[in-house]
Amino acid sequence: APKLPGLRGFSQVDKQKGSDDDELRVFFAVTLLRGIVQKPELETFGSIRPLLDTPYLKQIMTGERFLFLFF
Predict the structure, then answer these.
(1) CA-to-CA distance for 20 and 1, rounded, in angstroms?
(2) Could you say which of 33, 36, 64, 68 has the lowest number of CB atoms within 10 Å?
(3) Which of 41, 36, 40 is nearest to 70 (CA)?
(4) d(CA 8, CA 25)
């Protein structure tokens, strides 16, 4: 990933890998699932709290990776 001036290597962007077609398909599928399995906030997608946990989504894609692709 190209480094942007001023980020000095501390950015999460530096730690993430690029996406491929398969990962983007999974991302769009998870985005559609989020419309069915509703959560109070976007950040609760990767929650480990028992009340908000959705184990099958974590098996498909981590919450951190989903949020990185989302934003």
Answers:
(1) 14
(2) 36
(3) 41
(4) 32
The residues, any chain, with a CB within 8 Å of residue 22's CB and separated by 6 or more, are none
For residue 44, the model assigns a pLDDT of 74
Nearest to 69 by CA among 14, 32, 28: 28
pLDDT tens string 30-43: 888 877 877 777 77
Confidence of residue 28 (pLDDT cuts 50, 70, 90): very high
Token pair 């934003």 is found at 71
Torsion sign over Cα 22, 33, 41, 49: negative
